[in-house]
Amino acid sequence: MLIGILSDTHDRTEAMAAAVQLLQSRGAEYFMHCGDVGSPAVLDYLAGQKAGFVWGNCDWDRIGLQRYAKSIEIDCFGGFGELELAGKKFALIHGDDAELKRRLLSEQRHDYLLQGHTHVKQDIRVGRMRIINPGALHRANPKTVALLDTAADSVEFLEIG
Q: How high is the pLDDT of residue 106?
């Protein structure tokens, strides 16, 4: 399964539009946003897709984002998401809660830990878990997203022009 991973959009709708279009063109079947969405306008680009997101530390109107996501059938996981896709277990966080991250790494119950917050792309393994940070669509040079192929266990970082 191909999963498009995005983060730290901070209401930059043009970057979000370009990112989703690129990930779609590469075959992404599910989209995960690791927080700091910004506004419901960003979620519009995920409408009609299988997608989910967590809140980031700069997502101020959480109730509004949650309501809007529900209205367009996108999963809002709140501060922590946990799901299984293609037989793989995912933990989805923003990355600003150090205690939550430590606990998840200690428990080693997931195949993947997806996070944002730092605006820096990352792909490392800690025990059995692969930690992927797609980078950011705001305050990053270059702006990046990630495409995860769960069957091959491979990650590709894609630059957004």
A: 98
For residues 14 and 41, the answer to whether their CB atoms sit within 8 Å is no
Q: How far apart are CA 15 and CA 17, in angstroms?
A: 5
Q: Is the pLDDT of residue 161 over 90?
A: no
CA distance 97 to 1: 28
Measured in whole angstroms, how far is the alpha carbon of residue 103 from the centre of its chain? 19
Alpha-carbon distance of 3 to 32, in angstroms, equals 7
Measured CA to CA, the distance from residue 46 to residue 126 in angstroms comes to 30
- Gap between the Cα atoms of 19 and 142, Å rounded: 12
Using the 8-state DSSP alphabet, how is residue 140 labeled? -
- Mean of pLDDT over the chain: 97
Q: Residue 138, CB half-sphere, CA atoms under 13 Å: how many?
A: 18
Length of the chain: 161
Other beta carbons within 10 angstroms of residue 86's beta carbon come to 14
53 has pLDDT over 90: yes
Q: What pLDDT was estimated at residue 38?
A: 97
